[in-house]
Amino acid sequence: MQLFLHEVETCSGDGSATTEAWVHQMRDIMLDSEDVFDVLDANQVRACSILGDLRAWSKVEAQIRRIKKQLSDISRRRSEYPNLTNNNDPEDSSDKIIGLLTSSPLVHDKDTVGLDRDLDALLQHVLGEESELSVMSLVGMGGVGKTTLAKKVYNHPDVKRHFDRSSWVYVSNKMELRGVLREMARGLVKIPSAEANSLSEGQLQELLLSGLRGMRFLLVLDDVWEKGLWDVIKLVLPKNGMSRVLMTTRNVVVATSVIDVRSDVHRLQPMTFGDSYNLFCRKAFLTDGVCPDDLIETAKDIVRKCVGLPLAIVAAGSMMSRKKKNTEWTSVLESIQKDLSNGEMGVHQALLLSYKDLPHPLKPCFLLLSVIPYDSEISRKKLVRLWIAEGFVKKKNDETLETTAEKYLMELIDRSMIETSVISSSGRVKACRVHDLVHDLAISLSENGNFSVICHDKGASTSARRISLRTSHVQFHKEHKKKLRSVFMFNASAPVVLKSNIVAKRFKLVRILDLENANVLKLPKEIGGLLHLRYLGLRGTKLKKLPRTLQKLYHLQTLDIRKTWINIIAFQIKCLRNLRNLEMKQDGRSIKVLTGLAQLGELQVLTGLQASATVVHEIANLTKLQKLSVEDLNNEDAEKLCSSVNNMKELSYLSIFSGDAIRPLDIATLKPSSCLQKLHIAGPLQKLPVWFTQLDKLTKLRLSFSKLEEDPLSVLAQLPNLLFLQLNKAYQGKVMRCCCPGFPNLKIFIITELEELEEWDVDEGAMPCIQEVWIMSCENLATVPTGLQSLTTLQRLRLVGMPSSFTDRLGELSEDFVRVKHIPSIQIIQQYG
């Protein structure tokens, strides 16, 4: 069915309204067919318990006959459109796409060309000696590179070192003033998100006005549309202290409306042809950035169509990187020339061309991004789970669905349809976002094809199959009774009531119900009737308990109840045989699961689990687990937990929190999987277990409250792939030493509240790859580590809550300055926590 739908969607004709109507009708029939198959599947599940519902089966048969007739009629009418053809390349079939997908999980730096002069001009302004507050407005059309340039300034090492605080606020034409002030408070005053969300507009203004006094800060306001915004923002910004505001906008009127402070306007022009061509080649020819001789003229013709807009050039270059034959390049150029009336390809046309070039499995994955609010980050894990829940990802060979979905994600990133926003210390994508113009394209395509719709008010009168709600109150149209497949809710701060009749009648075919951070107090019991539900996102809601009817959700793959008020899962969780992800991590609490975990053989992720004798015994059956987080572990159950974990050969993440702050945790018999990459142990150990030396693949390690009596670095330095190390109240000794050639790949090292530590030595040759060091609340540490000057790769040093006797030694005329003068960014924060 998916392949047939793809054939319909790749049809092209004479562009007439009648032809487009034919394609639209065919798409609707195909989607209606999918609905019928879902109903059929539900009836099969229901038949197991009630011996079938003859009326339901009869209704399904009638629907199938109706659809067959519609297909027959519309197929006959196809002959009326002789220009209707299918230009689909067989190379793009789902059977062959996996071979095209990128296998590397690493993130590559985005290429930027031709911005050096602009960057120098902005840096000169931002780092200037002007003592008063000043504003620089960066003006240019959409896709010309304003945000890219602003990010280069924002992340520049000299800028990081120059300012006490910095904040990036994406404004757009969607965000209201309170949202802008809230993001400013989070970034500049470091107020927690939950507290910022609870404050009124006036309270936020007062908080900023008092919190920014005496502070040198950098504020970036990205994509400003309204000239009146500055009139309010300026009221909370002190006019002295050498602070700077960098604003990007498409409208020169917005830029020139900045008055009462020193302000300048920098116009960003389209790239020169030479720079455009260089950028295109970097994206199109990934190996060396050099265009083969037989493609040069075609490549130049394509670049000319992009009229110097970096976003269009990057999109076009990323697309062409997968075209190897001269005929393929010529075909793309001819298609561009045919579709463009003025011979120029702006950003929208380039992005649309990139979308059309996507392999079929990636198109719905891209369109699903339309439901996410502008400039919102979405985690890699969540996006992958949503794609799987929708059924967009098909199992291939021996790969898991998650592995295939992550390849889809990397493909979309490599094609510049998705941007990475957060990466791990190992270089893996943790979160991503979509450029606003790319997001506009996704919304336009989704709404035109009834794929999804965004609803900002109470009315939801649409036949779209996915709805993204931006309101706490919504009235569902009768069409949703048979159409709705996914429901997403964002920015629902007012109390949300899920009415029983709505859930029972309108959500019957829903696969995804994502209520993350919505103000939901209760779930109706009718939610147990959503037999197709694959993803239930309840993270950050106000729920205190779950209805027992959840045990009916046989197809459920992901249940996310993190950061809720739920304490116990009382229903029969053993019935959720297809559950793959059970996320329960709370802030300082764990969740009790009575029994039934042993039956969840497909489970891959299990977090926030409260340990008990029953639980640690049952999880021995979960041999597919890749991530496990167990809390409140007593010593009596520790040995059994070790035995159970030893069965988990695919485990890559393990977190163990002891429930006893006094007695050492006995985990000597643990034999972690050879796949283990991340480990967090919180609780007394006194000494490191012997098996620590065998963790050859470990990349991330956290030790908390360990009460180690011997210097742990002598053992940990031997871990060949360790990238991240944090010691939090983990060591009780007075001296710590990094020996050569220890920590060959360590990038980030954090020590927190090592209260007895007085001396830390670093041998020359140790930590040859270190980039970031944090020292927090180590009150007895007298000096900066000796040997720090030999760490030539060190980029950032963060000192938090350290006594003045320590930080005073870092000044240019002080004794420890020679140890730190080579570090590009040093930040001193007085308070910890």
TrEMBL record:
It holds the Pfam family WHD_DRP. Keywords: Plant defense, Repeat. Residues 483-798 form the Disease resistance R13L4/SHOC-2-like LRR domain. GO terms for biological process: defense response to bacterium; innate immune response-activating signaling pathway; plant-type hypersensitive response. SUPFAM superfamilies: L domain-like, P-loop containing nucleoside triphosphate hydrolases. Residues 119-285 form the NB-ARC domain. GO terms for molecular function: ADP binding. It comes from the Eukaryota. Residues 373-442 form the Disease resistance protein winged helix domain. InterPro entries: Apaf_helical (IPR042197), Disease_R_plants (IPR044974), LRR_dom_sf (IPR032675), LRR_R13L4/SHOC2-like (IPR055414), NB-ARC (IPR002182), P-loop_NTPase (IPR027417), WH-like_DNA-bd_sf (IPR036388), WHD_DRP (IPR058922). PANTHER family: DISEASE RESISTANCE PROTEIN RP, DISEASE RESISTANCE PROTEIN RPM1. This is Uncharacterized protein.
